[in-house]
Design a protein that fits this description.
CATH superfamily: Metallo-dependent phosphatases
CATH topology: Purple Acid Phosphatase, chain A, domain 2
Largest sheet: 8 strands, mixed
Mean pLDDT: 92
Helix content: 10-25%
Structural class: alpha+beta
Strand order of the largest sheet: 11-10-9-22-23-24-25-19
Number of helices: 8
Distance between the termini: 28 Å
Low-confidence stretches: 1-28
CATH architecture: 4-Layer Sandwich
Oligomer: single chain
CATH class: Alpha Beta
Strand content: 25-35%
């Protein structure tokens, strides 16, 4: 679609003022947790073209002599050996990456990881199909604290409920302390290798993945991104997009804590320009954008003014379907009041969601929604949720659920000959 003309980039004074509000993450490295078994923290990540390629990353306790992957169709056939690239160390472990290319769309494959001596068990995954083919994805807000006892039960309930999900979107703050290897071990245990190694993971970083202005060494070794983001080394593995069966998923990096304000201005403006181009040149019917700090804050004492000033116009101009966020440790879903219709159950334009999967909670507030010219449709405090989104050629059906499966929010986005409608369920 053609975007309406927008004003020039956000005034730097406004961005500088917005920096005064926000939480600070202080990294406290935890004890390193050795790789057990030989290959662990296996992650399947999408490329820009997940119908024909994929990325596999993993960790070993020691440097591997000949790291690689064996790949073949799940129903049998020739085995292809893919040489892996060592990507460095984090938390005492050695990380590796293998790029699986020249794959057939909508096809079941299996792969196993080797180090020159040992091999993992075979792991199954499927390449993306054609645009319009139905699929399901999960969306999880901050896990962050009390991972094993407080967050893991909800994550496992989500995976059991949506066992056919082909992707999972993580909206940042997966852990609490950026370089705490024991917390990363808890996260991988909670999410489970049976999920991370078979289901594409779309992860965007939160402020707790940073130590000051330094992204955790764990991040890009585990979540490399598709490599098609802005021309900015600081954004590698954090701003990128993938096209999956008719949906363009875009990860942005909204982190601004602990950074010099003039760096943040450039950081956000670079992404604003890049995002505008990515959305203008989008061949897909649907668009889902995810980042950590919301454009409209959902909790008391917080503001999304900084991110809102940089990106809201772009999201609205291109009529993004879902904007999936975290950071505020409460649940909220709404839209700009300008997107109301005569029917109170129907809106148009982007849907903005904030959710939290872990047990850390803040008090919800409507203040920033009003300041943004927006309205809350559903708002909850003290409520851990996971979100299941079913995608077809014509609809996105969204459900937010608690651990016991209770639906606490639901809507459907319709696209048809009469345009786009967001209908309350």
């Amino acid at each position: 679609m053609t975007s309406p003309a927008r004003t020039s980039p956000v005034p730097r004074a406004l961005l500088a003022a917005a920096l005064l509000v926000g939480a600070t993450a202080v990294a406290v490295p935890g004890q390193a947790v050795a790789a057990t078994p030989t290959f662990d923290r296996i992650v399947l990540s999408p490329t820009a073209t997940p119908a024909t390629s994929a990325i596999v990353t993993w960790r070993t306790a020691t440097a591997a002599a000949s790291p690689g992957v064996e790949l073949q169709p799940a129903d049998g056939g020739p085995v292809t050996t893919v040489t892996a690239t060592p990507t460095g160390q984090a938390g005492g472990g050695h990380y590796h990456r293998a790029d699986l290319d020249a794959l057939t769309p909508d096809t079941a494959y299996r792969y196993r990881i080797g180090d020159g001596t040992e091999w993992s068990d075979w792991i199954d995954f499927r390449t993306a199909g054609a645009a319009g083919d139905p699929f399901t994805f999960l969306y999880l807000g901050d896990i962050q604290n009390d991972i094993t006892e407080g967050a893991a039960p909800l994550v496992r309930a989500a995976q059991a409920d949506a066992s056919d999900a082909e992707l999972t979107v993580h909206a940042g703050d997966l852990i609490n302390n950026a370089d705490a290897d024991d917390e990363w071990a808890e996260w991988f245990a909670a999410v489970d290798v049976a999920h991370t190694s078979t289901t594409h993971q779309i992860a965007t970083p939160g402020n707790h993945e940073y130590d000051g202005w330094n992204l955790s060494d764990h991040w890009t070794r585990q979540f490399p991104g598709a490599g098609n983001g802005p021309d900015d080394d600081d954004l590698d593995g954090t701003a990128w997009y993938t096209d999956y069966q008719g949906v363009r998923f875009v990860s942005l990096n909204s982190n601004y804590t602990n950074a010099p304000w003039f760096d943040v201005v450039d950081w956000l403006e670079d992404q604003e320009t890049w995002l505008d181009g990515v959305l203008a040149d989008n061949p897909n019917r649907w668009t889902v954008v995810t980042f950590h700090q919301p454009v409209i804050s959902n909790s008391e004492g917080r503001t999304g003014a900084l991110v809102r000033a940089a990106w809201l116009d772009v999201l609205e101009d291109h009529d993004v379907d879902l904007v999936l966020q975290g950071h505020d440790h409460s649940y909220g879903r709404g839209n700009l009041t300008a997107n109301r219709t005569d029917d109170p159950a129907v809106t148009t334009g982007p849907v903005y969601v904030v959710s939290v999967a872990g047990p850390k909670m803040y008090t919800p507030s409507t203040t920033d929604w009003r300041l943004a010219g927006a309205e809350v449709r559903t708002q909850l405090g003290d409520t851990q949720t996971y979100q299941v989104v079913d995608v077809t050629a014509d609809t996105l059906t969204y459900r937010a659920k608690t651990q016991d499966g209770t639906v606490v929010d639901a809507f459907t986005v319709h696209r048809g000959a009469d345009g786009k409608r967001v209908v309350e369920n």
